[in-house]
Write a structure and sequence with these properties.
Layout lengths: L5 E7 L12 E6 L5 H9 L17 E6 L3 E5 L10 H17 L3 E9 L6 H13 L3 E6 L6 H18 L6 E3 L8 H14 L1
Parallel strand pairs: 2-4, 2-5, 5-6, 6-7
Antiparallel strand pairs: 1-3, 3-4
The structure holds guanosine-5'-triphosphate and magnesium ion.
């Protein structure tokens, strides 16, 4: 699938405030600073669409981007940012789960994991919660350009093996780099294939 049009469609903190147009939504989630906003920019070919930052905690709202006038990419705030005061973290958690639990148009979540590191407790707990609630998800191992091919393969394999301790089968898995564009076609084609089944 090609992205021919990508437009910012609004920010919200509650599902009731999201864009009124009801279209399928694919949302990106993961630890703060893992590269959610950068991946959205890479997929849409617009480096300025979603705001990115070296400082974790940049995205604090649910941001909808209308793609090809047919579906939404949704940029969510990050979870598990330890530096935030408890109150702020609780607020973000509320925004995230209000969206996940109540957005009727949510088709699936892409959970982003930094490809350089073992999955952390906070990632495993988040994924377990998705499983309990029956929310469909895929995984994207991000920042692939930041290490060599062998190290990348090893870490991704290790993470998949860790997942198979808790899960009978793996979800759809992708490897991406917002710098080189790795994973762009695979992720967009996957989303395209799901859209044709709706
Ligand atoms: P929050 O909104 O704070 O939760 O972060 P985020 O997950 O949206 O991360 P963001 O896209 O803002 O990226 C965080 C930092 O990582 C920025 O400095 C990006 O330039 C960098 N980054 C993101 N993706 C990649 C990547 O694929 N490769 C490299 N080398 N850097 C990346
Ligand atoms: Mg962000």
């Amino acid at each position: 699938m090609k992205v021919t049009k990508a437009v910012f469609a609004g920010s919200s903190t509650r599902v009731g405030q999201k864009p009124q147009l009801r279209l399928p939504e694919f949302a990106f989630i993961g630890r703060s600073n893992v590269g959610k906003s950068s991946l959205i920019n890479m997929l849409t070919g617009n480096g300025k669409l979603a705001k990115t930052s070296q400082t974790p905690g940049k995205t604090q709202l649910v941001n909808h981007f209308l793609i090809n006038d047919k579906w939404y990419l949704v940029d969510l705030p990050g979870y598990g940012y330890a530096q935030l005061p408890d109150k702020e973290r609780a607020k973000l958690r509320h925004i995230i789960w209000d969206y996940i639990n109540h957005s009727e148009e949510l088709v699936m979540l892409m959970v982003l994991i930094d490809s350089r590191h073992p999955m952390q407790e906070v990632d495993l707990r988040f994924i377990a919660e998705l499983g309990e609630k029956g929310i469909p998800f895929g995984l994207v191992f991000t920042k692939a350009d930041k290490q060599g091919v062998n190290a990348l393969q090893n870490q991704v394999t290790q993470n998949k093996e860790r997942l198979l301790v808790d899960w009978e089968e793996l979800p759809p898995c992708f490897v991406s780099s917002s710098v080189t564009g790795l994973g762009k076609e695979e992720i967009l084609n996957y989303i395209g294939s799901i859209l044709t089944t709706l």
